[in-house]
Queue: 2 jobs
Job 1
Amino acid sequence: MRRSTRPDAMLPLTPAVFHILLALADGERHGYAIMRDVSNDTNGALRLGPGTLYGCLNRMLAAGLVEESDERPDPELDDERRRYYRITAMGLKTVRAEAQRLSTAVAAARSRRLLGRASS
Amino acid sequence: MKASTQRVLRAICNIYGLMLLAYPDDFRSKYGREMLLALRNRAHDVLEGGSGSDLFAFVVHVSGDWVVTALKENAMTGTLVSRLRWIAALPLAIVAGYAAPWLSGYFIQDIREALIVAYFIAFFMAAVFITVGVCVVPTRRDAVARIALAVVVVLALTLMTMGVLNRASPAFLLGACGLLGGGLAYLPWRLHSSKPARE
């Protein structure tokens, strides 16, 4: 994953990268919280192992999609050795662009009656 | 948490700690501790709420993730080939260890001379295995030397035990020669280690 100033240049994202960005869109998270959120968001269909998660985070840091948070948790509330990650402005633009791309693909599938109507 | 569950959790973390050695050094030093923390949390949740089948699924998932990502990260940093070369040397060393007495007995009719040759081969094989391992993975000489020494010690002790159990077998001396060769090959790396001693 190369650093780019254009979100479109990074598309399509892998499912792991897309869901990590989705989890971080809600706020900063540590590694295990990201793993849990991704599993919950996908109803368990995508479970990230530690190798996949930190491999993706390593490349996302290099690409400028996420950054490490300087803040450390309160030692009484959480393990202070944990590193927290947050999404960057570039990451937010990229995840929006990917969501838009997927939405267009879903709309195309729906127009061909491959999918049912979206539940409201 | 029950004491038995804590023991399983500790065992899982210890095993995963060893598995992390398969990742490239930079990657491991940057993320290894966090990967272990994340795995510990996940394992804790599985052990607390899950059944035996959940634990099995967890182990399979983590193992699969480890194989794929360790290969991928090594391939991306270019250390995969050098590591594979060294790993490939292990079965060769084992085969050579068992073949040494047979081959020397085949070429040299005098059984005593054949055994002496076998002892020398065992000695050099252990030394070469450690030295080659250290040379093909130069970025982690100390760790590679320790792992290679552990392999040599296990093989040598196995041979020595076989020798003790079967008094007529030369396996004891073969194992002892391997141990000596391995120890002598390991010492230079240990003594010239550039890293400061741990406090």
Job 2
Amino acid sequence: MILNPLRILAELLQRRMLLAQLVKRDVLLRYRGAMFGVAWIFLSPLLMLAIFAFVFGQIFQARWPQTDSGIPFWMLLYSGLIAFNLFAETVSRSPTAVRSYPSYVKKIIFPVEILPVVPLGASLVHVGFNLLILVIVLLVMKSLHVSILLYPVLLLPLLFFSLGLAWFFAAWGVFIKDMTQIVPVFVQMLLFLSPVFYPVSALPQWLQPVYMYNPIGAVIEACRAAVLGIGIPWLPWVFAFVLSIAVFVLGQAFFRHSREEFADVL
Amino acid sequence: MSSDIAISIKNLTKTYRLFDHPGDRIKQALTFGRMKFHREFTALKDLSFEVRKGETVGIIGRNGSGKSTLLQLICGILKPTSGSVTVNGRISALLELGSGFNPEFTGRENIYFQGAIMGFSKAEMDAKVGDIIAFADIGEFIDQPVRTYSSGMFVRLAFAVAIHSDPDILLVDEALAVGDLAFQGRCLKKISEIRHNGGSVLLVTHAMEQVAHFCDRAVLLEKGRLTLEGNSADTLNFYLGSLNPQAEVDRARSSLEQYSFYNPKETRWGDGAAVIVDCKIIQDERVDPVSLLPGIFTEIRLHVIFYGNVHSPIYGLTLKSRDGAIIFTTNSQELLLANEPPKKQGDEVFVSFSFRPFLDSGEYFVSVGIVSSIGGRVVPHDRRYDVIKLNIAPHSAGAEPVANPAFRILSSL
């Protein structure tokens, strides 16, 4: 059992060739056959953003509480949503990550533990395009702050947290088919329970620590602060990072422990 | 583990837990295994054997005897319930053809993907890809999606990739049975290359010829237990005897055993519908000479008795050098360019092969056999591998040995 997070990372890095190929396949296969092809990777977030602008900018005329930064509500919503979607895509797809590849488990010698990493890689590709759109729109609005360069770094805890959970759910997904139904529903619920549509400061006092110190909330808050160009809440972020590493290590250990039975079940 | 052992298996047992309902697995996990909701099935029981480096070992046995489970355990895909599997070196396995291939991607893309699975870098694969494509021999299809491939092309590609990964240990499950003769030839050449470089090969197959031809040893599994382990001829004979006790009785009628040229280490199998009961070697009117003179017409006359109806019998003969290399192989269909007439139970036939042994002095082996071809599938009735040991006398001055013994059929009555 490996409990050193650096060694787990090193082992994943050793497999970067294979990972890169799997992620490429995953992303390309999703758009293969579509008329606009890979252009959808850019088109769909753009379309989403346009709808946000219309609904929250025009219809609701929503304002972000307690700020007067000049950045409209829908852009702040978008900057948090990018981070949340990283988590959502990785975790929602994890229950089928191993389950849908029985031949990799049973018929060839394959490092099965990297299968749940593939959705993470694919969602990172999407994050990349989303960030590009974010930067361009902020630039047009003349509201771009240097601190946005920190955005990718600030995502780190969420990466580890999502992957740790993905390993848990991927293993459970092999044994319990219901996971493929349950997990996406929970992720959907978390979208509204996370500070994506509202800042933590808008919550009742007693709830705030729960929101601030969990990896999803901490990362979204930090990322949004980077976009706004205000002080990043480092303490909750560091705390969330430590928590995420713990989830990452435990998830990996659980996956390794249960993989011995995968071949018997699939 | 000593350094010349490639695979060491000790007291290996694999038990599957069978749950009737998926929920039962959760129930058992929730009680931390204190309550049992499953039945058990033991696929392998207390198995021990070793494979040395450079060795080719065949694994034989009926369906369900645990052969594939054993390969999966050696690969590390399954974990032993108890006992141990120790593997020394890098494994390349062909367990089920085409697994790990993505049908939507082209042959070339799949080659690179398989390479990545085996841990090769792009540069390493760039160096191999030419050889792999040449070996697979699928022409322009290499840049087409794999789903458009015929099954033969699929197999050749999968095999080409597995075999070019320079494995220390190559595991093959029933994969060689497909592909045409030319491809099989290439595979076997490559396999012997692997062996010469100190690699080991493990072959699971129902094609007994392959075991007889290529394996140094064979392991016989029966109901998850190792029943016999030994040189391939002994193991095969035991296995084939156990499969078909009736043929064993007929074999007793063979009178070849009395001759000086008879090789007691022959490998023999078949369903016994026709039996080679006798064989005569005649050269220059000398019957069963101690040694043959090179270059002089020689006749090998087989006496075949039919115990069942055989629609299109084919009589075959193969000449091999002492180290097992095939020098010449032929059969009645090839030589006569026609099918032999059908035979019914009780018929007796004498088939004579004649040839001129332009061969260097020394020992040679001859295999003979009677098979029939039903819809393209070969059914062996009586195959006797290496049944005759030929001694070629030193040739007189001036006579140059050549490789072609000029076979033809004299008569088949």
